[in-house]
């Protein structure tokens, strides 16, 4: 009887072996999931935007012949727009831009020679510049330089009120600047910028109805700070890169 039970148990064990072996068979190969990726910002393309801020322009009035009438700072606000194109080579970004702004930079001083008031105002300016910058994905730091043009108005006023003579001019000079742009949404960037304008000296004749009142060589430069918002056509979708 014991021998019969032992033989039966052996047969059962041998019959179950194939089923166990089947359960232990290797599972089918499954490909590992791809690494996480993110789209890199591409700064290449046309853009257009608006800007606003403030500035100051230092003015020095000298009578033709070398006698100084004094100096003052003309300060105020500005608002305008810009349009440009950028192209990117690796992390380096090149660009060209045209900017036009309305301005209200005003100031005056009492003439050290005549005792009347010398008053100046910048009511508009334009910048035409090239840029070069370095990009960290959606952040861009750049420097710029090129030509500047300014619309100036000058008055010689009596201290008690009234204008003796006026002059105006459109003056060309140079500019250098630095800025930072940040891409905060597809197609949109926000930035800040500082520009220094080198406008040199220019002679202006102040003429009254009865003839020439005086001629002044007026020297000026300007410092302008603006915040900017740009819309870039084509978005910032660039090549896909692995994120580690």
How would you characterize this protein structure?
- The protein has one helix spanning 2-23, and strands at 37-41, 45-63, 68-89, 92-110, 117-136, 139-157, 163-185, 188-208, 211-232, 237-242.
- The chain has 244 residues and is mostly beta strands.
- Strand 3 and strand 4 (92-110) form a beta hairpin.
- The longest helix is centred in the N-terminal third of the chain and has 22 residues, at 2-23.
Low-confidence blocks of residues: 1-14, 16-24, 237-244
CATH architecture: Beta Barrel
Biggest β-sheet: strands ordered side by side in the sheet: 2-3-4-5-6-7-8-9
Tell me the span between the first and last alpha carbons: 70 Å
CATH top level label: Mainly Beta
Beta-strand portion reads over 45%
Number of helices: 1
SSE string: HEEEEEEEEEE
- Note the main sheet: 8 strands, antiparallel, barrel
List keywords for this structure.
single chain, 244 residues, mainly beta, Porin, eight-stranded antiparallel β-barrel, two-stranded antiparallel ribbon, 1 helix, 10 strands, elongated
Topology:
Elements: H1 2-23, E1 37-41, E2 45-63, E3 68-89, E4 92-110, E5 117-136, E6 139-157, E7 163-185, E8 188-208, E9 211-232, E10 237-242
Antiparallel strand pairs: 1-10, 2-3, 2-9, 3-4, 4-5, 5-6, 6-7, 7-8, 8-9
């Amino acid at each position: 009887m014991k021998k019969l039970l032992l033989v039966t148990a052996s047969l059962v064990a041998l019959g179950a072996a194939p089923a166990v072996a089947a359960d232990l068979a290797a599972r089918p190969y499954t490909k590992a999931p791809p690494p996480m990726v993110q789209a890199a910002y591409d700064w290449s393309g046309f853009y257009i935007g608006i800007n606003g801020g403030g500035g100051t322009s230092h003015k020095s009035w000298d009578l033709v012949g070398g006698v100084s009438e004094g100096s003052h700072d003309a300060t105020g606000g500005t608002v305008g727009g810009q349009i440009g194109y950028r192209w990117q080579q690796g992390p380096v970004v090149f660009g060209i831009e045209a900017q036009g702004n309305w301005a209200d930079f005003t100031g005056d001083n009492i003439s050290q020679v005549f005792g009347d008031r010398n008053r100046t105002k910048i009511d508009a300016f334009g910048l035409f510049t090239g840029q070069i910058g370095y990009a960290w994905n959606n952040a861009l730091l750049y420097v710029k330089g090129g030509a500047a043009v300014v619309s100036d108005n000058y008055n010689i006023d009596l201290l008690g009120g009234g204008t003796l003579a006026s002059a105006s001019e459109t003056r060309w000079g140079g500019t250098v600047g630095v800025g930072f742009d940040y891409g905060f949404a597809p197609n949109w960037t926000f930035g800040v910028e500082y520009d220094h304008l080198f406008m040199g000296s220019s002679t202006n004749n102040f003429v009254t109805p009865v003839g020439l009142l005086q001629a002044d060589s007026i020297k000026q430069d300007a410092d302008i700070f603006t915040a900017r918002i740009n819309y870039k056509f084509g978005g910032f979708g660039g090549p896909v890169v692995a994120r580690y």
